[in-house]
C-alpha cells in the first residue's frame, strides 16, 4: 500500500498543494490595509495620550499618577523622585535606574525647562513619532499583514507611551532590520543598521539581541531574503558604542548601577522578593546569569538550524522572549520589545489575545501596587500583583513555544516545505495496463 495519504496522492488532480492558486494582494488592497492599521494605531495612540492627560495637568504627583496609570521612569526621574521603598519587588528607580540615553535626555531637558508637564509633552511627541515609524517598519517587514493587528492594537502601547524612550529604540531596531536586509523598497546598508542598533542598545540592552538575531539569520536567511554579511553591521555597532562611551563618561557606571538594581516588577525574581524569600541584591546576579544562560542556549539552537533558512523575526522573538522569561525585571517597556516580532511570528489568535490581556492586567496591577506602597489602604495587594505576574510569565512561555514552532514549519517569511510530486510506488503486484476501449491486458 502507498505510504502517502489520499489527499497527498490526489494533489495533482486537485491542482497542486494548498494555496498554490491564491493570488497575491494588489497595491490597492495593501494600501487600504495600511490605512486601516494606521487608523487603529492612531486611535490607540490617542487613547494613550488621553491616559496621560490628567497627569499633565496635575504635574505627575504621587500617588495619583500611579493610580491614573500614567507614571513612568522618565517623569519620576525628572522630578527627582524614586519608586516607593515599601513597594516589594520594585527597583529603586530615579536617575540611577535610567538607561544611558534616557538619563542624558532628562539632564538635557532640565536645562530647557523645570516643568515636568512640558518635559513629558515633549516625551509624548517623540514617542508618538517613534510608534508611527515602528508601524511603517512592520508593514514593510510583514508578509501576512492581517496578523499585525496584534501589534497595532496592543494595550502595551497605552502604558509605554509616556514611560521611557524604548519606543524610539525599538523603532530604530526594526528599521535596522529593514535596512540590513534591504526589504523593498529600501536599499541595504549594513553600516547604517549597525549605527541604529548601537544607539538603541544604550536605551535598552535588548537591542543587542536584535543584533544577535541578524548575525545568525544574515548569512542564511529564510524565504526570499538575500544573504547578508553582518561584519559591516557589527563594525558600525562597535564604533557607535565606543563613541557613546567616550561622549558620556558615566555610561559604564550607569550600566553597573543597573546590574546592581536589576530586580524589578514582572519577573520571577520580583515574586520571590514579594514573598520575602531573599532580597533584590541576592537574586539580581542569579537571574542575570540564568537569563544569559537562556540566551546562550537559544543561540546554539538557532545556530544549529540556520542552514535550513532562519527568519530574523523568529530569531529575535525567541532570543528576546527567552531573555525576558528569566530576566530579573520585565516591566511593560521591556515586554514592548517582543511585541513586533511576536506579531510577525505567532499565528495563533488565542495566544495573541491572552498576551494582550496579560499585559493589560499586569500594567494595571503594577501601578496599583505602587499606590499600595504609598497608601496602604488603597491600590492592590502584593499577593495579587504576584499572581498576575505569574500568569503573564506563563503566557510568555506559550509565546516562546509558538514562536519556536516556526523553526520546524517555516511559515513566517520562510521556506514553505514544497510538496514533491507523487512517486510511483513499486510493489510486487502486477501492473494492469489499459488498452483500446478499456480492456485490461
From TrEMBL:
Keywords: Membrane, Transmembrane, Transmembrane helix. The chain crosses the membrane at residues 34-51, 118-141, 148-181, 193-220, 282-304, 310-328, 349-369, 384-408. This is DUF2029 domain-containing protein.
Amino acid at each position: 500500500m502507498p505510504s502517502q495519504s489520499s489527499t497527498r496522492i490526489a494533489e495533482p488532480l486537485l491542482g497542486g498543494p494548498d494555496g498554490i492558486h491564491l493570488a497575491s494582494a494588489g497595491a490597492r488592497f495593501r494600501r487600504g490595509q495600511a490605512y486601516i492599521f494606521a487608523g487603529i494605531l492612531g486611535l490607540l495612540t490617542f487613547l494613550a495620550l488621553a491616559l496621560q492627560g490628567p497627569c499633565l495637568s496635575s504635574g505627575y504627583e504621587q500617588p495619583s499618577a500611579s493610580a491614573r496609570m500614567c507614571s513612568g521612569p522618565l517623569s519620576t526621574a525628572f522630578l527627582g523622585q524614586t519608586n516607593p521603598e515599601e513597594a516589594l519587588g520594585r527597583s529603586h528607580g530615579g536617575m540611577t535606574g535610567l538607561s544611558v540615553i534616557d538619563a542624558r535626555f532628562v539632564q538635557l531637558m532640565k536645562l530647557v525647562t523645570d516643568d515636568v508637564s512640558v518635559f513629558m509633552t515633549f516625551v509624548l511627541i517623540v514617542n508618538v513619532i517613534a510608534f508611527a515609524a515602528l508601524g511603517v517598519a512592520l508593514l514593510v517587514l510583514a508578509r501576512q499583514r492581517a496578523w499585525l493587528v496584534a501589534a497595532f492594537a496592543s494595550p502595551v502601547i497605552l502604558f509605554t507611551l509616556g514611560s521611557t524612550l524604548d519606543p524610539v529604540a525599538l523603532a530604530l531596531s526594526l528599521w535596522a532590520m529593514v535596512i540590513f536586509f534591504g526589504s523593498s523598497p529600501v536599499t541595504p546598508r549594513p553600516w547604517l543598521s549597525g549605527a541604529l542598533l548601537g544607539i538603541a542598545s544604550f536605551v535598552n540592552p535588548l537591542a543587542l539581541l536584535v543584533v544577535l538575531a541578524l548575525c545568525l539569520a544574515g548569512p542564511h536567511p529564510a524565504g526570499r531574503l538575500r544573504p547578508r554579511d553582518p561584519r559591516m553591521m557589527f563594525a558600525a555597532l562597535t564604533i557607535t558604542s565606543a563613541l557613546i562611551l567616550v561622549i558620556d563618561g558615566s555610561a559604564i557606571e550607569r550600566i553597573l548601577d543597573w546590574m546592581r538594581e536589576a530586580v524589578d516588577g514582572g519577573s520571577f525574581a520580583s515574586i520571590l522578593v514579594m514573598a520575602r524569600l531573599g532580597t533584590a541584591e541576592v537574586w539580581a546576579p542569579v537571574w542575570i546569569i540564568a537569563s544569559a544562560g537562556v540566551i546562550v542556549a537559544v543561540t546554539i539552537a538557532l545556530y544549529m538550524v540556520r542552514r535550513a533558512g532562519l527568519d530574523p523575526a523568529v530569531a529575535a522573538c525567541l532570543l528576546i522572549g527567552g531573555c525576558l522569561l528569566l530576566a530579573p525585571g520585565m516591566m511593560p517597556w521591556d515586554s514592548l520589545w517582543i511585541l513586533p516580532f511576536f506579531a510577525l511570528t505567532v499565528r495563533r489568535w488565542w495566544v495573541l489575545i491572552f498576551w494582550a490581556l496579560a499585559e493589560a492586567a499586569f500594567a494595571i496591577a503594577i501601578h496599583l501596587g505602587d499606590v499600595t506602597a504609598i497608601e496602604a489602604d488603597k491600590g492592590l495587594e502584593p499577593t495579587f500583583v504576584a499572581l498576575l505576574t505569574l500568569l503573564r510569565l506563563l503566557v510568555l512561555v506559550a509565546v516562546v513555544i509558538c514562536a519556536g514552532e516556526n523553526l520546524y514549519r517555516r511559515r513566517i517569511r520562510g521556506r514553505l516545505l514544497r510538496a514533491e510530486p507523487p512517486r510511483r510506488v513499486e510493489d510486487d503486484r502486477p501492473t494492469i495496463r489499459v488498452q483500446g476501449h478499456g480492456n485490461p491486458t
